[in-house]
Amino acid sequence: KEDIAELKQMVEGQPAMVDANTLFEVDHEVNFHGKLYEITKNKTLKDFQFLLLPIFNHVYEMGVLRPSLNPDSHVSHKGLVDKLEKGDPNSFRIAMRNHLDNHFRRLFEQE
Q1: Which of 64, 81, 66, 73 is nearest to 100 (CA)?
Q2: Of 2, 11, 71, 109, which has the fewest Cβ atoms less than 10 A away?
Q3: If you compute the radius of gyration of the chain from its CA atoms, what whole number of angstroms results?
Q4: What's the pLDDT tens digit per position in 54-110?
Q5: CA 37 to CA 72: how far, in whole Å?
Q6: Torsion of Cα atoms, 78 then 81 then 60 then 70, to 10°
Q7: Angle between helices 77-86 and 89-108 (to 10 degrees)
Q8: Residue 39: how many other CB atoms lie within 10 Å
C-alpha cells in the first residue's frame, strides 16, 4: 500500500500525455520506472534501467523522439498505477506493454 501511495504521489498532476513540445520528461520517467523496479525487489531490473538511461537521454537530446503516433492507445503512468492497484498481474503486463510500445513507435514508425 505504501508503494502504491508513493506512485500515486509521483503521478499526481501529471498529464496523461506530455505535450508535443516536451515529448518525454526524463527525470519523471526515471523516478517512476525506478520505483516500479524497486517494488519488484529485482536487482536486474534496476540495473537494466541504468543501462537504458544513457540511450534514452541520447535519443531525447538528438530530437528523434516524435510525439505519440496514436495517443489514444497510450497507457499513462496514472493508468499503470490504476492497474497495479485495481487490476491483476496480466492486466498490468498488458498495460505496461502498451505503455512501452508507445515509446518504441515514436522512434521507429513513420507517420
Answers
A1: 73
A2: 2
A3: 14
A4: 877 787 777 776 666 566 677 889 999 999 999 999 999 999 998 888 777 777 765
A5: 26
A6: -60
A7: 160
A8: 15
Determine the length of the chain: 111
Determine the Cα angle at 22 with ends 19 and 28, to 5°. Answer: 100
The secondary structure of the chain as a DSSP string is -HHHHHHHHHHTT--SS--TTT---HHHHHHHHHHHHHHHT-HHHHHHHHHHHHHHHHHHHHT--PPPS-GGGPPPHHHHHHHHHHS-HHHHHHHHHHHHHHHHHHHH---
> Is the overall model pTM greater than 0.90, yes or no?
no
Any residues with CB less than 8 A from the CB of 8 and at least 6 apart, and which? 81
